[in-house]
Design brief:
One of its GO terms (molecular function) is L-aspartate:2-oxoglutarate aminotransferase activity. This protein is of the alpha/beta class. Helices cover about 40% and strands about 15% of the residues. The chain folds into two domains: about 160 residues, Aspartate Aminotransferase, domain 1 (Alpha-Beta Complex), CATH 3.90.1150.10; about 240 residues, Type I PLP-dependent aspartate aminotransferase-like (Major domain) (Aspartate Aminotransferase, domain 2, 3-Layer(aba) Sandwich), CATH 3.40.640. It binds pyridoxal-5'-phosphate (PLP). Pyridoxal-5'-phosphate binds next to helix 4. The site of pyridoxal-5'-phosphate has 12 residues, from helix 4.
Length: about 425
């Protein structure tokens, strides 16, 4: 085994010969007509199959425990047994939860649209009464949060993401100084894409933001990966609601979750939580969109997952399928890039992503090189508002969907592209 040499310590000769070898490896990979894809943060086929029993699980028994016939209209805020199942996922009382349709993103969109154009506390309170509406976006972050803001004409203000969550010094400063800032996006456990879990201090400071901020400020707390740990010792997330209760800021947080990555993506159940006052206003708003959600699906989910223990056992099966895929990528990165100065990454303990940082100015080039040999990566910049990564250095890797064999092949090819781009840049 050759000792690891940092890229900046390579002699000119070593650089040239290393580069030659990489060009050859790259050409060889190009010959192989690969068709690999690490772009999609969606569950693999074996994962969705874990919930196939949803089909027919009701065995034509359509009555909920309170006698509601789930085949018929009504029940805008969801079945009580679904609330009992999902309230613990967000760590909230059942009275502060509503169960929606198939997508938490839809609920987030509706909340933002409601706060913007209708007003959480009546027309006077609508964010849209002001010319400029801004939301803080920890970066790198989830592209669909950013696309939603862009679509609704909300300005995005990037704030750095640390290993402990958003840089709260920056967040608090901005929120105090600029009253046009109306909210912040958060993916608090196994964040998309860095995989970090917000520290207790970060959660406490997020809960207190409502006291520093303008009226009707919202922490959009998208807990999409609340129960999506890769192993049992993964770090827990502090309960934001408990801090909010202490601070008197329950009105300033909306939490979201869904079973998109628990049961069927796109055919699961989504839920949201906030203060009783917020939910009352929000439900009234929802009533203009829908007579009620799909309660048949809610009841099917309760039958399948049953309770907290059932849910946990189900998630352990997901973890067993995901672990080797994450391991394959991480082992390849560690073996090939540790100590070389050609990239950094975090080792996520849950969620769906590995966030890779190239040397500055190389993310687009690595994605381009990968595409040249049949390896599709998420477009560079996708994890930043307006698709603009100022350092051009973040690449999101999503190993859940391809077969383990393909994940391994992709990781190997990815490393070749990273090395090639880095050495070419250094050579100038
Ligand atoms: N939030 C985050 C952070 C996600 O990564 C995703 C999907 O990738 C979603 C929300 C989408 O959730 P849903 O399917 O419930 O709309």
């Amino acid at each position: 085994e050759d000792p690891v040499v940092h890229i900046e310590q390579l002699s000119a000769d070593a650089l040239s010969s290393e580069l030659k070898s990489l060009e050859a490896q790259y050409a060889d990979l190009a010959q192989r007509k690969l068709a690999l894809d690490l772009t999609r943060g969606k569950p693999g086929t074996e994962q969705v199959s874990l919930s196939d029993a949803l089909d027919g699980i009701l065995d034509r028994h359509y009555l909920a425990e309170n006698g509601t016939d789930v085949r018929n209209y009504g029940g805008l805020d969801g079945l009580p047994e679904a609330k009992r199942l999902f309230a613990p996922v967000l760590g909230v009382p059942e009275a502060e939860l509503i169960i929606g349709g198939n997508s938490s993103l839809t609920l987030m969109y509706t909340v933002i649209d409601f706060a913007l154009s209708v007003g959480l506390r009546g027309p006077e309170s609508a964010w849209g009464n002001d010319d400029t509406v801004k939301i803080l976006c920890p970066v790198p972050g989830y592209d669909r949060h950013f696309a939603l803001c862009e679509h609704l004409g909300i300005e995005m203000v990037p704030v750095p993401m640390l290993d402990t969550g958003p840089d709260m010094n920056a967040v608090e400063k901005l929120v105090k100084e600029d009253s046009s800032i109306r909210g912040i996006w958060c993916v608090p456990r196994f964040s998309n894409p860095t995989g970090c879990v917000y520290s207790d201090e970060t959660v406490a400071r997020l809960a207190a933001l409502g006291k520093l901020a303008s009226e009707c400020f919202l922490v959009m707390y998208d807990n999409a990966y609340a129960v999506h740990a890769l192993h049992e010792n993964a770090p827990a997330l502090a309960n934001i609601r408990e801090y909010c209760e202490r601070e008197g800021t329950l009105d300033n947080v909306f939490q979201f979750g869904s079973t998109s990555k628990i049961t069927f993506a796109g055919a699961g159940v989504a839920f949201a939580s906030s203060s009783e006052a917020n939910l009352k206003a929000f439900k009234q708003h929802l009533g203009f969109q829908s007579i009620g959600p799909d309660k048949v699906n809610q009841l099917r989910h309760v039958k399948l997952l049953r309770d907290a223990e059932g849910l946990q056992a189900h998630m352990q099966q997901h973890a067993a399928l995901l672990r080797p895929r994450f391991k394959a990528v991480l082992e390849t990165l560690e073996a090939q890039l540790t100590g070389t100065g050609m990239g950094d990454w975090l080792t996520p303990e849950g969620g769906y992503f590995i966030s890779f940082t190239t040397r500055p100015g190389l993310a687009k080039e690595v994605v381009r090189l990968a595409s040249g040999i049949g390896v599709a990566l998420t477009p560079a910049g996708a994890t930043y508002p307006y698709g603009e990564d100022p350092e051009d250095s973040n690449i999101r890797l999503a190993p859940s969907y391809p077969s383990l064999e393909d994940v391994k092949a992709t990781a190997e090819a990815f490393v070749v592209c990273v090395k090639l781009a880095s050495l070419r840049q250094l050579k100038g």
